[in-house]
């Protein structure tokens, strides 16, 4: 693929990915306000943006086998833990941006767990195994992730056990 086309596809992938997330969040907010049809519209178009992003990623050769995909996921989570979020968090602290400091700290702590879970999954994938059948719970406030049962309170943000989302 020619460099300019590749750069543009990566940019398009980023834009479509962000649109998918924004519209999904907008749907959730509309739903909270009782606007079920507006939420449905946002969800439908969010899905279309997901399709666009997936098509772009496929053309870029960004979808591989399980081990390859886990390598990409591990690299991404590791970058966030070791480089990105520490710098973002320190900058937010330095500039007195309390909301951004909390948001980046929450993400940093959760990403550490995500990297470990992906490493565990990669080891299983390399052995030709599927990931273990276990409930996974996510804190809806900070993204803390736990296998099995959630704690009474989130160790990162203090959210209650009953607020965790089960996967």
Structure description:
Helix 3 (66-94) packs antiparallel against helix 4 (98-126). The protein folds into 3 domains: 3-59, Ferritin, core subunit, four-helix bundle (Ferritin); 64-130; 134-167, Single Sheet (Rubrerythrin, domain 2). It has helices at residues 3-32, 36-59, 66-94, 98-126, and strands at residues 136-138, 145-147, 165-166. The mean pLDDT is 98. The chain is mainly α. It has a 3-stranded antiparallel beta sheet with strand order 2-1-3. The chain has 4 helices and 3 strands, in the order ααααβββ. The N and C termini lie far apart (38 Å). Helices cover 67% and strands 5% of the residues.
Chain-wise SSE layout:
Blueprint: H1 3-32, H2 36-59, H3 66-94, H4 98-126, E1 136-138, E2 145-147, E3 165-166
Antiparallel strand pairs: 1-2, 1-3
Helix pairs in contact: 1-2, 3-4
Question: Hey, roughly how much beta strand do the residues contain?
Answer: under 5%
Number of helices: 4
Radius of gyration: 18 Å
Largest sheet report: 3 strands, antiparallel
Q: Separation of termini?
A: 38 Å
Number of self-contained structural domains: 3
Tally of DSSP β-strands: 3
Which regions contain 5 or more consecutive residues with pLDDT less than 50? Answer: none
**Mean pLDDT rating:** 98
Helix share, percent: 55-70%
- Identify the overall geometry: globular
Spatial strand order of the main sheet: 2-1-3
Sequence of secondary-structure elements? HHHHEEE
SS content category: mainly alpha
